[in-house]
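User: Show me a protein chain along with its predicted structure.
Assistant: Here is one chain, sequence first, then structure tokens.
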Amino acid sequence: MKINSKRVDLEYQPGKEIFHFPADTGLPFFFDVGEELTADPAAMDAVGEMLDEAETLAEKAKAAIQAALADEGSRYHSVVTFFMEFHRDEVGPEIAAELFLGTDPSKLSFAEMVDFLKLKRFGSLVDGEMNQQVFIMDLSFNPEITDELMVIYFDLNQEIFCITHES
């Protein structure tokens, strides 16, 4: 079977997990799909559609992070603030300088830091709590330097329903 995507030509076996490194696909991020979805043609069509929109969804995720930073009442405010604070203030000046090349990290606002986030992984699985297909996006400043991630969950309508910090 092939993923119905305009941007990549990937074959997969129904019932088998998909996991590809960027070098395998030409995509600038890791790509994975849970095995429970690969046997469902409708789910895999959704994967192809969302994969074609990955960078647009990353921009939507960044906008949501910026909105959460600006809104102290947001349920995600403390999560995204902690993530930014850690990378600017806690990792040490040498590491921060590597993460935010060409800037003085101590002068960056948290909102400005969002621009440095890059899409590192995009995937789909069945969420155990919701019992439905979801899409997961990992954003990172630089995974070679830090294993901390902003993880954004999208539903089938491309709406964000969760933002979390993972490592």
